[in-house]
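User: What would this chain look like folded?
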Amino acid sequence: MKRRTIAIYAATILFIYFLWYVLSLLLGSNILPDPLKVFARGFEEIATGAFWIHVEASVLRLLAGLFFAFILAVPAGLILGSNEKLDRLFAPLIYLGYPIPKVVLMPVIFVLFGLGDTGKIVLLTMIIFFQLLITTRDSARKIEKEIVYSLTSLGGSKFDFFFHVVWPVSLPGIFTSLRIGVGTAVAVLFLVESIATSEGLGFYIIDSWGRAEYTTMFVGIISLSIIGIVMYEIFELLERKFCKWKSL
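Assistant: Here's the prediction, encoded as structure tokens.
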């Protein structure tokens, strides 16, 4: 991470801390605890093994959802975006499926796949899938026909077309949708982990809230936010590494 980025993060954290501290004085510690008490509680929690069990469960579910969404949506998006006939055939299905809020399907998914990790990962995958699919498809559709004709006239195969044209053109859009997907997935993760589970930061937050331990609850909120920020920065780093031509 560049020094400038670290400095911006540090300044933003200080601003949030100041705003949080002022609000805690105005609202009272019962509603918004003092940030110093939350940080002190956080250090106590990270020293326990039980806390890291929750972190591990949340990270694994999040990574599994991103992984399955990626391997399902990206190839489908690349194929649809580079094939007009298939795109026209599947467009109605995508346009009807994308606007439906997948969270409302949670009871159905839990009935079909159970209340364990499988059901939670399936829901995360479904939500990220459409974001990845549409962004990848739209990126692949931007390829001009002149480029296709040039490659064909030079004897390029379909593999060359996908590997040297479709994939690099679509890659920035794929990383953008992954970054957007992380934010959505973290929000949904909290929701699914608040139901029928005893592990995960979503459960950790709801359990602390139920016991009126607000400082512990904010530790969970901050931890979930940190996971989202770290994954966002990882995709940002990967994009800079694999899409170097963007900065030329």
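The mean pLDDT is 85. If you want, I can go into more detail on any region.
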